[in-house]
Amino acid sequence: MTIRLSDGDAVPDDVLAVADDLYRMAAEELYRTIQAIRTGQMSEVKAAQTAVRDLRTTALQVLEERTKVDKLRKQIAGHVGAGGALDFDAARAEIGRRLACLRDAGGRD
Questions:
Q1: CA–CA separation, 3 and 19 (whole Å)
Q2: Cβ-Cβ contacts under 8 Å for 69 (sequence gap 6 or more)
Q3: Domains of the chain: which residue ranges?
Q4: For residues 51 and 24, is the Cβ–Cβ distance under 8 A?
Q5: What pTM was estimated for this model as a whole?
Q6: Could you report the per-residue pLDDT of 43-74, keeping only the tens digit for each?
Q7: Which stretches of the chain score pLDDT less than 50?
Q8: Is 52 in contact with 30 (CB distance < 8 Å)?
């Protein structure tokens, strides 16, 4: 199942929530179909196959979206510090430099 938005449609704020809702709806449809088959409505077999296929597709989309979100979070975190890691030596040198500037600016009696 592919969700296509036209130019005027707003992109959902929480794509993961939308994917989770789709997953839930597919699971509910599968459950209803299984119940119908248990009561002897064999015409529902094709619907069950479709529901299973939709459920699998939706589950894969949820996992892909979560992977994309995790990747974006890592990219955003990478902009903090040097490559995502703090450079304590550079921080220590900067603190020392600023303290030296403050000492020089303070004057001596």
A1: 10
A2: 15, 16
A3: 15-106
A4: no
A5: 0.38
A6: 777 877 787 787 788 778 878 877 887 788 77
A7: 1, 3, 5, 11, 82, 109
A8: yes
